Structure formats: structure tokens, C-alpha cells
Amino acid sequence: MQKIKTQIFKSSAPKQLIFSAMLWLAIVSGALLFAPKGILSVVHLDEVVSANSHYIGLAFIIGIAFIITQVVNYFLDEAISVLKTKRATEVIEEKVKLLDPTERALLREFFLQGETVLTLPQDETAVKSLVATNIIEHLGNQKHYAIQGPTADYKISMRARIYLNRQVLRLPVGEPSQEEMQNLIKARPTFANNLTGPRKHAA
Q1: Nearest to 69 by CA among 14, 11, 12, 9
Q2: Are 70 and 8 in contact (CB under 8 A)?
Q3: Number of H helices, E strands in the chain
Q4: How far is it, in rounded angstroms, from Cα 77 to Cα 26?
Q5: Degrees to nearest 5, angle at CA 21 with 26 and 71
Q6: In this predicted structure, what is the pLDDT of residue 197?
Q7: Quick one: 90 exposed, middle or buried, by C-beta within 10 A (0-12, 13-18, 19+)?
């Protein structure tokens, strides 16, 4: 219960306080409603509970209803998150099978340059397509250039990495020969000369 409670409102302190207040409301009101009369008599609360039982019962119902609602919402959010992740993975799997030459060449640049992050032109069709299908992720650091247009930093998404092997990217096994390297250079995207790591600065 503690784990669920902290995860439900881990990003919102006010909501966490409300949840805690409702939880204590349900506990206290429940204890007053269901405690044996002998115990209530000892603490001199039997008459108070009898006179206000309908209010205490209402408080108990409100507290329990609120807690149940939050727990249900938590599990619904988790289910939706799982479905989104599954859908994103399916999109990646389908896209990897249908990469066009420019998209494949762009992805090879991460491996050829040995960079985790590359600065790419945002307006390129291949970049937009790979972002839309969750294969690369936009990291920000957007810059504008008078000649080539806006650029930003991108990296290959964690979900996509397991699908991008040498066979998919058509990279040679082991150290490429001179001929294989020439073929890779010829196949680079037209904007390859502008592909750099994230250290690039605007003019």
C-alpha cells in the first residue's frame, strides 16, 4: 500500500497531502465505527460516537471512496503506459523493416562517427520520420542557421537500439575494407557533411 501511495502522487506534494489526509480520515472514522463499545467507553467516546455516527459514517465513506478512486486511477495509468510502450515498440519493429536508404544512412552515422548524440537538421524528412516512429529522440539544444536551417541534438532511443544491428544498418562485419568504406561514404545522406556531435555551435 505504501509503495502504491508514494507512486500515485510522487510528483505532487499537495496531492500527497490530500491522499494522506483522506487515508487518516478513513482510518480514524473506521476505527470509531467498528471499535467495540467497551473500548469506546474506556476512552469516553461512546456517547460522542453514538450522537455523531451518521457524520462519522459519511466521513468513512468519503475517505474510502477517495482512496479507491486514486488506486484505480493509478492502475489505469499503469495499464495505459504499458499499452503505449507496447504500441511504440510495435511501431519501431515495423519501421526497422521499412527503412529507406536515407534513414538507414542517417542511423549509420551514429555508428560511423562513434557518437551517442548527433546534431541533425530538424527539417529533413528522414529526421522527422525517425522521430515520429520513436527510433530517434529529440534532446533539445535547438539552434538556427541562416543557410541550413534549424538543427537540434538527437540520439537513438533505448527501445530502438536492440533492433539496429549491423545487418539492419548494412554495416560490414568487423573492420571494413577500403572498398566497403568507400561504399559507406557514397551512401551517406546528402546532409552528412553537416552531421556533427552536440559540440557544434551556431555562427
Answers
A1: 9
A2: yes
A3: 10, 3
A4: 24
A5: 70
A6: 58
A7: exposed
Q: How far is CA 33 from CA 22, 24, 47, 66, 93, in A?
A: 16, 14, 12, 18, 56
Q: pTM for this structure? A: 0.61
Under 8 Å between Cβ of 107 and 154: no
13-34 helix and 53-97 helix, angle to the nearest 10 degrees: 140
Mean pLDDT by 10 residues, the chain (203 residues): 50 78 89 82 79 87 92 93 92 92 90 86 90 92 75 92 88 78 80 61 42
Q: Name the DSSP class of 152.
A: E
As a whole number of angstroms, the distance between CA 29 and CA 55 comes to 9
| Residue type (1 letter), 145 | Y
What pLDDT, on the 0 to 100 scale, is given for residue 140?
85
Matching residue, cell 482512496: 67
